[in-house]
Fold:
Amino acid sequence: MRTVDIIMDKRNGKELSREALSFLIRGYVAGEIPAYQIAAWAMAVFFQGMSTEETAALTEVMLQSGGRFDWSGIAGPFVDKHSTGGVGDKTSLIVAPLVASLGIKVPMMSGRALGHTGGTLDKLEAIPGYRTGLQEEEMREILCKTGYAMTSQTAAMVPADRLLYALRDVTGTVESIPLITASILAKKAAEGANALVLDVKYGSGAFMQDPAAAEALAHSLVTTGAALGMRIIALLTNMDEPLGTRVGNFLEVEESLDCLEGTGAEDLMEISLELAARMILLGGKAQDPAEGRRRCEAALASGKPRQFFLDNIRCQGGDPEQFLAMRGKYRSEFTADIRASQGTFIARIDARKIGHAGISLGVGRDHTEDPVSPTAGVQFHKKRGDPVSPGDRIMTVWAKDAASLQAALPELQDAVEYAATPPAPRQLVLKELTVLSNHTKEQN
Ligand code: URA
Structure:
């Protein structure tokens, strides 16, 4: 087999065999195929796409490049949730303790903030002492104790994805649906989950802004997952505005606890409950999403998920008492308010602009190696649909330093859109996609 022939086949629109894909990926990971040839192949995939079978084969080949968690000996079911990323999206921190409190194990491998989107690991690491670089044995111990464990991707997990993702990032090939699908599913399969709920976001703050593109990604994920024997439900959810009332690392951990205590913002609670309900369904603890949701609501009312959350903090190296004492106080000293410039209604707070301003504030990062600030962020006092008078406080912001605060203020002000009349209600969950017995079921 010659690499150049495989590249030309894909360039000419041919379906590649599992053997060809294995030859490419193994050769790349072993250092035998140079990055420039893999970049050429990735660009050919970007333009020509891949069939479901090809994407499934690529996922398996990538998965085989590294290790895989083995949870034998622990009682399941094992169900995970993955989000394609957004602004103020802290649903993982809410659904993991919630569904764990109902007897489902959640071995979650998460990512860091990149570009305008936030990262679960950066949020959790804002809790002093919280460790996310867990080894399999520690994951196992924590899963047994608190039902869920949060970790970063270890060096041994899907090394092909780490190499390929870094290459795609600098060769304009990130936005390829089959490459994204294989990247996400290989990591999820490596976690050892039996089933997966995907939160595929669309809107200004999403990776895929256009709902049709997000739906195409969701469709690729559920059909490829089904071809691999994974049980997946995808929800298409709105990311035009930040979820909840806070964006920032420690701020979002605090807000997650508010949700577990029943005082979370409506939009955040709604999406979290819809995701958790489907995790309960896939875990076999409910007959349908409505029953799953009722079980989640009852669990929240019992206070059990809050205790799971605090127990998990202790198990992963933090101190729950210290965390509770820091609540509402752990903020940067560099702070300012954004006030209403006119007296009307808030039509929208643009998620992408808030996410970009968050990079300046220190919430997120432009490059993987940049540090983030635990105490920077934004708290919204008004959101979509709220009436405002000139001078009303819309947001309070905290920045990593004085210069960053000044740099972010214009974009934060610009993120607020006004309207003379209240905006129409927003549909938070646009669509559900899943594959049941080899056909795609779509529900509006
Ligand atoms: N997230 C991933 O994990 N992989 C991609 O390729 C894109 C987003």
Notes: The pocket of uracil is lined by residues 165, 179-180, 183-184 (CB under 6 Å). The longest strand covers residues 195-202. The first helix runs from residue 3 to 11. The chain has a mean pLDDT of 94.
